Amino acid sequence: MIHTNRRNFLKKSGLAAAGTLLIPSMSFAVAPNEKYGVQLYSFRDEMAKDAKGTLEQIASIDIKKIESARSKEGLYYGLSPKEMKETCDSLGMELCSGHVALDKDFENTMRQAVESGQEYIICSSLPSKGQNIANYKKVAEAFNKAGESCKKLGLKFGYHNHEYEFESDKGEVLYDVLMDNTDPDLVHMELDLGWVVVAEKDPLHYFKKYPKRFPLWHLKDMNMHEKVSTEFGKGGLDIAMMMKHKSDSGVKHIFIEQEEYASTPMESMKHNMNFLKTL
User: Fold this and answer.
1) 147: domain CATH number?
2) Choice between 1 and 45, residue whose per-residue pLDDT is larger
3) At what angle do helices 106-116 and 133-152 cross, to 10 degrees?
4) Do residues 166 and 190 touch, judged by C-beta distance below 8 A?
5) What is the DSSP letter of 182?
6) Of 3, 95, 103, 191, which one has the fewest beta carbons inside 10 Å?
């Protein structure tokens, strides 16, 4: 049975018919050798207490890729960039990306990213406030410059959306303004699929409008009433449909993120990994 929230979303987005057509082919939506990652904010408290021990637990449930997140302990939860890389390597995981701020310390952020061996650094929130076209064009210019700086160091710069970027100003969706004014060779988008559907937008529309522009995903199911994350299959994101169309988006790294949990972060992540394996 389609979850009520998801059914409402599908009706709004025009995907209801497509969803019914997908059902017979769901088992082919996910490649069996897909290597999934996790955004470490999902384990933020555990990482703050015991970074290496938590990474060991994450590796034990077959997660192969890591995206770090800036915290009060630093970019790598108290570990040095080299320690973070070595720990992931020893556990058979790849440190691919990290959430950072585009701020006065950005030079040091890039330096640490190079030392860690990661490929991407992702700005996790807008560097200047203003829900209007003028600010988003200003942000796009800053992102292009940051992308140039990263490219010189062999890094890739990107941006991670929330819900608010899909608000409109003067009839234009602000996220589209950001997309239209950033250089695809310099700014690599990480699409948080959960926030897209909460904003009542269709991720498939963005895959089509901006093909191959989303090398990173946050795969996040959402409770559509409370606007909080939930375990896979319990919310409003049609995960099988997303997987079927992932090549359209150009995704290379899929990071699972969950910020609220039915019990514990590890139990939720085990559920999510099992869900993906049984699609």
Assistant:
1) 3.20.20.150
2) 45
3) 50
4) no
5) S
6) 103
**Ramachandran region, residue 211 (left: φ > 0; alpha: ψ -120 to 50; beta: rest):** beta
Task: Find tokens 């497509």 and name the residue.
Answer: 18
User: What's the pTM value of the predicted model, to 2 decimals?
Assistant: 0.89
Q: Which of 240, 195, 187 minimizes the C-alpha distance to 217?
A: 195
What is the chain's Cα-based Rg?
A: 18
Q: Is 152 within a domain?
A: yes
Give the tens place of pLDDT for each residue, 57-94: 999 999 999 999 999 999 999 999 999 999 999 999 99
Residue 24 lies in a domain: no
Average pLDDT of 186-205? 98
Nearest 10 degrees: Cα torsion 126, 132, 138, 139: 20
The boundaries of the domain holding residue 74 are 4-13+34-277
- Per the structure, the count of domains in the chain is 1
The token pair at 258 is 């969950």
Span of 29-38, 45-54, 221-230 with lowest mean pLDDT = 29-38
Query: For residues 84 and 88, what is the distance between their CA atoms, to the nearest angstrom?
Result: 6
The answer as to whether 26 is a domain residue is no
Q: Given the DSSP bridges, would you call strands 94-100 and 187-192 parallel, antiparallel or unpaired?
A: unpaired
29 located within any domain: no
